[in-house]
Amino acid sequence: MTQPPDAILRRNSGFDAVKGAAIVLVVLGHCWIGLEGAGLIPDERLFSAVENAIYLFHMPVFFFVSGLFFKAVAAPGAFLRGRTESLLWPLVLWSWVEALALMAAGEGRAPVDLIGLLMYPAPPKSVFWFLWALFVLQVVTYALHRLFRARTEPVLIVLALAALGYFAMGFDPGGLVNVLENAPYFLAGVILASRRAELLDGRFPLGLAVLLLVGTEGLVWIWGAVPVPPAGQLLALAAVLGFTVLVGRTAGVQPGAALAWLGQRTMPVYLTHIIVLAVVRVVLLKLGQEGLALHLLLGVGCGIGLPVLLDQVVQRLGLSRLAGFGSRRAT
User: Where are the bilayer-spanning segments (predicted)?
Assistant: First the structure.
């Protein structure tokens, strides 16, 4: 039965809320690591506990949701142009911006000449690995859809298992580590795309979602670290499912509605928050402020708020494509 547009919009807002909550965790995680590097978190156990809790699943969520909404219906040329514009161009542009910021700050890892600046995006550095890994996964999945068509799902299942098995056999993935490590999350989303409504409409048991998220986080707490793949991948898959169901069902009420709003603006936040966090941390330290709570509050607040303000300006000027921020669905 065809569902009414408002039901579809509510469900999509649910997945926006999932992305919104995940981007908050991304900013919090990077702020947390930056503060540890600055020597502001003396309790090593506290640092590890928070880091492990966040890093278990915060990026796998984005791969999973991307897979849920992946479509292979465009012509090959249009598909590649779209993915280049939405993933590769932001990677290149904001890698250059980061390189210029490092040069201005006198960082030792900054490029030293024009050639180094131009080549800085390759291989992907900093947070930009995500864009490259997602690009590769989407292109490969698109090619498989075009090749196998109605028989694609079994192939994707085999590939997801192969990605898990690759690490189980102890092979070194080299430069493809980010692609292979995150392949199961993206492919799981693609495989479940036709049933994504079930995640948010009540058919997926809420108690099971709580068990998956809390149980996996509890195991990580007991172990004191996120296990290496494939055990870590399996735990992350379970946590991603639980997190998606729990957060996705909050979109109709606060704070879920606010997270859904933020979830439509994750790209500008993701691309720029690292620079904002570094500036906030340096300014506070220059002012003699070393309180952990203050750094977290201002760091996360500015790391989300300033990129959102920048996005508002960019959208008003009609420069969203040029800035790599992408377009947003009308609400």
Answer: 21-41, 53-74, 86-106, 126-145, 152-169, 206-224, 230-248, 269-287, 293-310
Please state, in angstroms and as integers, the Cα–Cα distance from residue 234 to each residue in 45, 58, 109, 312, following that order. Answer: 24, 14, 34, 38
Distance CA 265, CA 329 (A): 10
Specify the 3-state DSSP secondary structure of 217.
Answer: helix
Whether 187 and 159 have beta carbons less than 8 Å apart is answered as yes
Question: Residue 228 and residue 35: Cα distance in Å, rounded?
Answer: 25
| CB-based contact 187:144 (threshold 8 Å) | no
Distance CA 195, CA 197 (A): 5
8 Å CB contact between 40 and 80: no
Q: What is the pLDDT of residues 285-316, one digit of tens each?
A: 999 999 999 999 999 999 999 999 999 999 99
Token pair 């707490």 is found at 221
Spatial distance between the Cα atoms of 235 and 239, rounded to a whole number of angstroms: 6
* Cα 31 to Cα 241: distance, rounded to the nearest angstrom: 25
What is the residue type of 196?
R
Length of the chain measured in residues: 331
The pTM of the whole model exceeds 0.90? yes
Q: Which two tokens stand for residue 266?
A: 């994750």
Q: Can you tell me whether residue 169 is helix, strand or coil?
A: coil
Q: Which of 130, 128, 129, 103 is nearest to 114 (CA)?
A: 103
DSSP state of 41: -
Closest CA to 303 of 26, 20, 15: 26
DSSP 4: P
As a 3-state breakdown, the chain gives helix, strand, coil percent values, each rounded to 5, of 75, 0, 25
pLDDT in tens, 51-68: 999 999 999 999 999 999
